[in-house]
Input
Amino acid sequence: MTDLLEDARARLQRFHPELTAIRRDIHAHPEMGMEEVRTSALVAARLREWGVEVTEGVGKTGVVGTIRGRRPGQRAIGLRADMDALAIHEETGLPHASQNHGVMHACGHDGHTTMLLGAARCLAENPDFGGTVHLIFQPAEEGRGGARAMLADGLFERFPCDAVYGLHNSPGVPVGRFATRRGAMLAAGDRWSVTFRGTGGHGGSTPHLATDATVALGYFLLAVQTIVSRNIASAAQAVISVGYVGGGSAESPNVMPAEVTVAGTARSYNETVRDTLERRVRELAASLAAAQGCSAEVTYLRRGTALVNHDEAVPVAMAAAAAVVGEEHVDGDVTPSTGGEDFAEMLLRCRGAFMRIGNGIDPKGAALHTPIYDFNDEIIPMGAAYWVALVREELGFAE
Output
């Protein structure tokens, strides 16, 4: 009998034009997290067309497809792709550019969905493995809590998995390359804000009668930059950045505002460092406000957790990638990124690993989350083959 992966390669070459059309259709009709009604319906319809058992509405707009192998086996694995888009106005000028104003697939989730659909079709047509594959099409990866929503809706209770795997494209990495690592791979992403309040006043005639919130803000802007350099061990990694400062009115620059706000992001790889970042933001805000006779209101939101691959799952993922592109093209020690990914939530509940696939080197330098980014359709068969190779590694295959 034909090897599962080799059979999939042949099928994917035939399916490639159809999969490309699916990807571009999804790209042209992007939907924000928890609003993926059209995308979910498309996914469910295609899965049913190929004979896959489908469950819709998991975590609101999530879809799970289930394929049972024809060979004996009790184990089950999950393969996860994300479906949502971003609030970005597309500027690619492509024929398949977004038709939804202000919403764009700027992170490649259209491609992720399509690659998993390609694998689903191959596995459905030739389920020569033992056990069960759950195809997890997740909503709302981009900050709206899609993984948590699916988990809260009983994802792993309803669809038990012995392991779960994720895949993400990487612009700037050549086509035909895969990368992962043991341990922490992506960071926890937090959002914080501080509102300083004083009395405000007339900046021209009576500044001495006011408590000036802008002075507290100024000291804080400098002090917050010392948290990583002076409170985090040099062997650890963390980022804290300011992304917003607001207060007063440009039309009334002679008025000292009674309230000013600063907000930013914090990234870290473990909970101890994360605790330190939050504690120091709060301490600095309170002490610097008090020094100026002001008050400070701090909000610190832990939006996600660090993505930490399981040591025992990484070799499996690497073996699958190597089966597709060769060992020399698989990096097993990629540098951790301070980007975030809510697949991390699933890894807290189930053994698994996250993998990156090269999206190619764009001459324009298009990066993720930019208006000129587009997923590279050339890698669709490669990504789909990786999924099939994972099934082969985890659930066995015919020699």
Summary: The chain has two domains: 4-186+306-395, 188-302. DSSP finds eleven helices and 16 strands in the chain. The chain has a mean pLDDT of 96.
